[in-house]
Amino acid sequence: MTEQGQQQDAIRTDAIVIDDVALGLEYGTPMTNEGKLAVRPLAGIDFEITVTGQQATEVIEGLTKRSEVDVRDPFANRAYRATMRLRQSSYQEGQPRRHYRFEVRELDTPPEVRLLEINGQQFTVLAYTESAGDNGPSRQAVLRLTPDELSRLRQVIAEGKPLQVRRVDVDEQPFTARFGRYNYWSRHEEDGQEYYKQLIRLYPIGEVKSKLKLDFAQGIPQDNLIEIVKGLSARFDLLLNALVEEGAITAERRDHLLGADWRDAVGPKRASELDWQTNAVRDAIAQID
Predict the structure, then answer these.
(1) CB neighbours of 211 closer than 8 A, spacing ≥ 6?
(2) Which domain holds residue 207?
């Protein structure tokens, strides 16, 4: 009925192998269901089995206590990671027979993505995750970009328009998404060549609530940062006043610099560069959830 042994690389046709336990085909009933992340139907097996003897009982008891297992499924002809759930166990006092009903269900996991196409432009993917939401999956990817690719991607982000996104070798047609916030990036060098890691977050158009964990500054560092900003503002005022006194700039120019919106003063290009500086990190791949 059951046997323990080395899990085989190939899918066995005479048994269902769960971790290191092989069960006869007659004890399992295959089933499928649609996932939210997987691109193909998810496999699963319902088991109903009666065992006799202490050794067989210990095998099934130990198996059904596991939360996740590796399954080699001859019905689906493939291997997959699955959840394990004991649905029922019963026995009669003084009787050696125990009856079990349990199930394995393939984990709903996103496909492996190596290339991401955004508005017709393809980018190399270093890391990729998805999570299910009420309006569809939310996606995160860390892209490896050349300086030119980084510039082109930032232009697309700045436009703030709906995107046409395709996971290359996964999706036949693109899906519509929008960029989220907290697009952290980092600069790197390899063999003398400069490249960038850019974290992007993609949400369904209807998704308005962010489930991201916000990193709030702790009290003392935050107070220190406020003092630094106030100190810089005060020194800037003193510098401008000194320049007026020395005749380097006019009083009108000083008043304009102090009174104008800084974005208008520096222009859109420099304002965008400063905005991106706030999202610079040591390594963007460490920021993916």
Answers:
(1) 131, 133, 138
(2) 111-214+267-289
